[in-house]
């Protein structure tokens, strides 16, 4: 895996890690961390079923425990860990925290990857003084091209936040931000991969409507979106400069961009991101009761 740009050194510590739940997001983080060179022997993960546990262990080499047959699987995984990633759905985060609270050492860092669950909610569900880091990652972590926002809790030291950042650094861009900005991070990068996939879908449909064979239209759209993203990773790359470079005066691309502007695409994207951020805030209020 090619190492992405990051301001944090990639993790080289002997920390033991636990992933409680290994679904879409926590599974992406787990695979991204493994891809950066972390030894599987340092990691214990929990999943619901025995078949999924067997598949995860065979695929990644980590110790995988099934909660369906071992009611203490989450507790056992958390007990031996220095950093614990909570990967259940937002509605289950506080319950999971209460389940493992007694098993955590005072210095064990609890990392949430759930949207909308605030640091305060997590801290109130753990033992007093437990270090908490809230993260907002995205699924391109699995291919070393992720983006992660991190916020430290009341009791998390700078060193502990940096330790979590170092785990993400091998598979994505990491930025530490105030918690108040995490909903915006979620709206831009957390949900952002879906926006890019949505664009690729729309481009493929447009190609079909213009007469391209469906497979060709899909392949062209996929390669174009992926290639453009790779160009954006070049040092000093600016989206507006790259766009202007392929937009010849009075040419075909200029006509397409003019249509986007006339139809209000920039405003649509801004309103969509606002809707995502607003929904995250709504979920936070719902979870807080």
TrEMBL record:
Pyrroline-5-carboxylate reductase catalytic N-terminal domain: residues covered: 16-115
Organism whose genome encodes this protein: Arthrobacter halodurans
Encoding gene (name): proC
HAMAP family: P5C_reductase
Sequence similarity: Belongs to the pyrroline-5-carboxylate reductase family.
Pathway connected to this protein: Amino-acid biosynthesis; L-proline biosynthesis; L-proline from L-glutamate 5-semialdehyde: step 1/1
Cell compartment(s), UniProt: Cytoplasm
UniProt cross-references to InterPro entries, sorted A to Z: 6-PGluconate_DH-like_C_sf, NAD(P)-bd_dom_sf, P5C_Rdtase_cat_N, P5CR-like_CS, P5CR_dimer, Pyrroline-COOH_reductase
SUPFAM superfamilies per UniProt: 6-phosphogluconate dehydrogenase C-terminal domain-like, NAD(P)-binding Rossmann-fold domains
Record-level Gene Ontology MF annotations: pyrroline-5-carboxylate reductase activity
Acetylation recorded as keyword: no
UniProt-recorded name of the protein: Pyrroline-5-carboxylate reductase
